[in-house]
Amino acid sequence: MVQALIDIDDHTNRVLNIVKAKYGLKDKSTAIEVVVKLYEEELLEPELKPEYIEKAKKIETQDSLDIGTVDDLKNRLGI
């Protein structure tokens, strides 16, 4: 396990105390681990979520759109 001395502001300290109380954790280090785990699940790996997989499958079944050349695309977009 890595040990680190960190500086946090008052708001972050309060949030960690809330997380610590909510999950019945023994210290703020464990609260930080919980917050990081939740962040990882929510933001770093959205492709693993069932909702994302469903959305990707719907997109796969859609008909593709032939845009032609780059100039055709620019004309279509009004660029």
Descriptive labels:
4 helices; elongated; single chain; mainly alpha
Q: Can you put this structure into words, describing what you see?
A:
This protein is mostly helical and 79 residues long. It has one domain. The protein is 63% helix and 0% strand. It is built from 4 helices and no strands. The protein has helices at 10-22, 28-44, 50-61, 70-77. Helix 1 (10-22) packs across helix 2. The radius of gyration is 23 Å and the shape is elongated.
Number of DSSP helices? 4
Distance between the termini: 54 Å
Level of helix content?
55-70%
Domains counted in the coordinates: how many?
Answer: 1
Q: Which structural class fits the helix and strand makeup?
A: mainly alpha
Order of helices and strands: HHHH
Average pLDDT rating: 89
What global shape is seen? elongated
Main beta-sheet strand count, sense and barrel state: none
Q: Estimate what percentage of residues fall within beta strands.
A: under 5%
Number of E-state strands:
0
Radius of gyration: 23 Å
| Uncertain parts | none
Give the SSE layout.
Layout: H1 10-22, H2 28-44, H3 50-61, H4 70-77
Question: Quick gist of this model?
Answer:
The protein has helices spanning 10-22, 28-44, 50-61, 70-77. It has 4 helices and no strands.
